[in-house]
Specification:
about 110 residues, about 95% helix, mainly alpha
Length: about 110
């Protein structure tokens, strides 16, 4: 055998090895794609019900926020009513306190005289 025959044999063997490696790479790639497709299908199957639950939860939170808003509004109304009542009561009490102070000063002046 001459050098050319050896080189042909080596190149043929190298070509067969490279073709086998290419086939292995393609098979591995296809297997990986199938696994990814299965994972995505599983993710889809799990995420859709989860998103529906999130939607229900958000609706419940909105309902609770509306209830809290009603409570805060009621509290603001009661607070305003109490403030108005305090102002109504404070005016006569302040007047009586001023009158009481004036009467006390009058008595103390009368005693000194």
């Amino acid at each position: 055998m001459n050098l050319r025959s050896w080189l042909e044999v080596v190149l043929i063997v190298l070509g067969i090895i490279l073709a086998g490696a290419g086939i292995y790479a393609v098979v591995s790639f296809i297997t990986t794609l199938r696994e990814v497709r299965g994972t995505l299908a599983d993710f889809h199957d799990r995420s859709v019900p989860l998103l529906e639950k999130v939607d229900v939860t958000i609706d419940a939170i909105n309902a609770e926020l509306l209830r809290v808003d009603g409570i805060v509004t009621d509290f603001e109304e009661v607070s305003g009513a109490v403030s108005s009542a305090t102002d109504i009561i404070r005016t006569p009490v302040d007047a009586l306190a001023g009158l009481g102070g004036r009467i006390a000063r009058s008595f103390s002046r009368a005693r000194r005289s």
